[in-house]
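Hi there, hope your week has been kind to you so far. Do you reckon you could talk me through the fold, stretch by stretch? Thanks so much in advance, here it is.
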Amino acid sequence: MIDQTASQLESAQRRNFERWPVLGKYVWPNPRPYPKTYAGEVDKLKNWLAKRLDWMDANIEQLAEGVRIPSR
């Protein structure tokens, strides 16, 4: 889904980064490294999302222990 969306945004991203040349530069609050290409930005998003999902898989059950969901 990310690749499909990135592909649909291909022409828009070119205009965006021509207008705001921020690739490879610090933009608050983004952590290092700063991708120098749109493809790098897309890869960074996919890597972050994969790590986040792994963390959720490993932690969500223990975080939910003892949580009561009120009945309606």
Remarks:
- The first helix runs from residue 2 to 8.
